[in-house]
Design goal:
Blueprint: E1 14-18, H1 19-32, E2 38-42, H2 44-49, H3 52-61, E3 66-69, H4 72-80, E4 87-89, H5 98-103, E5 107-110, H6 113-126, E6 130-137, E7 145-146, H7 150-159, E8 163-169, H8 179-198, E9 205-207, H9 211-216, E10 224-225, E11 254-259, E12 262-266, E13 271-272, E14 278-279, E15 284-289, E16 306-309, E17 312-317, E18 325-328, E19 340-347, E20 350-352, H10 354-361, H11 365-371, E21 378-381
Parallel strand pairs: 1-21, 2-3, 2-10, 3-4, 4-5, 5-6, 6-7, 6-8, 8-9
Antiparallel strand pairs: 1-11, 11-19, 12-15, 13-14, 15-18, 16-17, 16-19, 17-18, 19-20
């Protein structure tokens, strides 16, 4: 998905992706679920910024049964890369894309009677069978038929010719924070499943559990689970670095690094970067890093961020630019052009948790990871 200059692997700014950590995190997911429960690995949004094809390939090597994406284009990309495993698009579909779903053997989420009818019509015209998951809304209010109006939707979908119902699913809204509402969602989903079972319409795949559901609600695992942020090394319940799962703990798989590009001595009372939002209090040393908000290093980290150079932590000063930012190392600090700089993750035994940066800018790990732009090369490390 990255072309031209964006694939230049010797760029000083790079995201190192540690595949052994991915394998560790997958093993933790497996420790929560029974052996007969399938795993649909969520690899949407370029595998949360980690690389769609590379992460998908590794997860499939490790025995993951399904891949979950958000858009048709992600599924087609994986097919063109040679991925033959089952892929489900969990987002809302546009009816003019249905033929492409069927042509590329990508499973479809139907969220209404009209969508099911449209899928069946296109499949019949193509002389093929569409594979479909029925989406039930139990409280997310995003897509899907409300649980208390689902019976007609389900019966009508099963009556559609040229369509195989592979699964039924829903999505948690607050599994990280609200046990009462999550239990209510599960009860709503159970009522639909009970109705389907009585009518002998229960499909093979039943899934609702995201990472928080996997960890917090064993009764939500059913026949398949959908881990996302857990796979990438983050606890959906919050930053809990010392929590262990047996003899293991979740390990972030991305480390973001760059290199010192420039070094200078700056006098006291000198403004740094755009609009001089930072002024030096005394003569000091400033280094420039070749990374900015165009790479996904949030502009809101201006005068808030911290980096590690040669084992010491230093502040990001002045406004973060599109392509560069500045760090003050002081007159006692030591840095040389070409030195590695840690922005988040782990380097030489030092760490900057991504969660700490998210707290500074008021966001979540999901957004920060997805925001690391395509011009930052991903370097895969065993």
């Amino acid at each position: 998905m990255i072309a031209g200059v964006e694939t230049y692997k010797n760029r000083p700014t790079r995201a190192e992706i540690f595949l052994n950590n991915l394998r560790n995190n997958l093993s933790i997911v497996r420790s929560f679920v029974n052996n007969n429960v399938k795993i649909m690995a969520m690899v949407k949004a370029n595998a949360y910024g980690h690389g769609l094809y590379e992460i998908s390939s590794e997860l499939l090597k490790q025995g993951v049964e399904y891949l979950g994406v958000a858009f048709l284009e992600e599924g087609i990309y994986l097919r063109k890369c040679g991925i033959t495993a089952p892929i489900v698009v969990l987002g809302a579909i546009h009816t003019d894309q249905i033929a492409e779903f069927i042509h590329h053997d990508i499973e479809i989420t139907s969220s209404s009677i009209d969508k099911s009818a449209a899928i069946a019509t296109v499949a019949k015209d193509m002389g093929k069978e569409a594979k479909v998951h029925l989406k039930i809304d139990t409280g997310m209010e995003r897509i899907g038929v409300h649980w208390n109006h689902a019976e007609r939707f389900i019966e009508t979908s099963y009556e559609c010719k040229s369509m195989t119902i592979k699964g039924v699913c829903s999505h948690f809204a607050k599994a990280e924070t609200d046990p009462d509402f999550t239990s209510q969602q599960l009860n709503r989903f159970e009522s639909v499943l009970n109705m389907m079972e009585k009518k002998r319409l229960l499909p093979e795949l039943i899934h609702i559990a995201n990472s928080a559901g996997i960890m917090n609600y064993k009764n939500s695992h059913y026949t398949m689970v959908r881990p996302g942020i857990m796979l990438y090394g983050y606890n959906p319940n919050g930053y809990l670095p010392d929590v262990r799962f047996g003899d293991r703990k979740l390990k972030p798989i991305m480390t973001l690094k760059t290199k010192v590009a420039y070094f200078k001595v700056v006098p006291a009372q000198t403004g740094i970067s755009y609009n001089h939002t930072y002024r030096t209090s005394k003569q000091t040393r400033i280094v420039t890093l070749p990374i900015g908000y165009g790479d996904g290093y949030f502009r809101q980290l201006s005068n808030k961020g911290e980096v590690i150079i040669r084992g010491k932590k230093y502040p990001v000063v002045g406004m973060i630019c599109m392509d560069q930012c500045m760090v003050e190392i002081g007159m006692d600090g030591s840095a040389y052009n070409g030195d590695d700089v840690l922005l988040f993750g782990e380097m030489d035994g030092n760490t900057i948790p991504l969660e700490s940066l998210c707290d500074k800018v008021g966001t979540v790990t999901y957004e920060f990871l997805c925001g690391i732009s395509s011009r930052v090369p991903r370097i895969y490390v065993e």
